[in-house]
Amino acid sequence: MQLKEALAEAMLENRLLKKSVSRGWGGRYMRHPASEKLEIIRTVEQSSLGVRRTLQQVGIPRSTFYNWYDRYVSEGFDGLEDKKPVFIPTAGPVWNKVSEEITDQLVKLALAEPDLSARELAVQFYGAEAVLPFGIDSLSHPETL
């Protein structure tokens, strides 16, 4: 009986190694189509080596395998397809986005006063209290403080 198990193990290892080389199984950050994921799941299920050793032979991290397996159990074959990330819009306005109304007002002011610098436009538009008296780059020069 031990000879049969050793032969089965050797045959499985040989099969896994052939597939891993020919198909490119394993490798960090490698994408696998759903059909390959299912084949890897079936191979692990049928292996007499145990999950850990089989996955080491195939070159698939255990966490990756179990993610695939959980999705396969819960969603079937379709769960093995790569999922595109879902865009989640922010609940409120973006913190650094200027509204179109204010942008229009600033453009009108800039066109009316072409000689003003960006800082002078900001002071005139927002008021002197809302604008820093010096730029970030001048913080390293003590004479400006």
Brief summary of the model shown:
This protein has 145 residues and is an all-alpha fold. It has helices at 2-23, 34-46, 51-58, 62-75, 100-112, 118-126.
What topology emerges from the helices and strands here?
Blueprint: H1 2-23, H2 34-46, H3 51-58, H4 62-75, H5 100-112, H6 118-126
Helix pairs in contact: 2-3, 2-4
Overall geometry? rod-shaped
Write down how many β-strands occur, each being a DSSP E stretch of 2 or more residues: 0
**Percent range for β-strand residues:** under 5%
How far the N terminus sits from the C terminus, by CA atoms, comes to: 87 Å
Main structural class: mainly alpha
Helix content: 40-55%
Low-confidence stretches: 136-142
Q: Please, how many helices?
A: 6
Biggest sheet architecture: none
**Averaged pLDDT, please?**
77
- The arrangement of helices and strands along the chain is HHHHHH
| Radius of gyration, taken over Cα atoms and rounded to an integer in Å | 31 Å
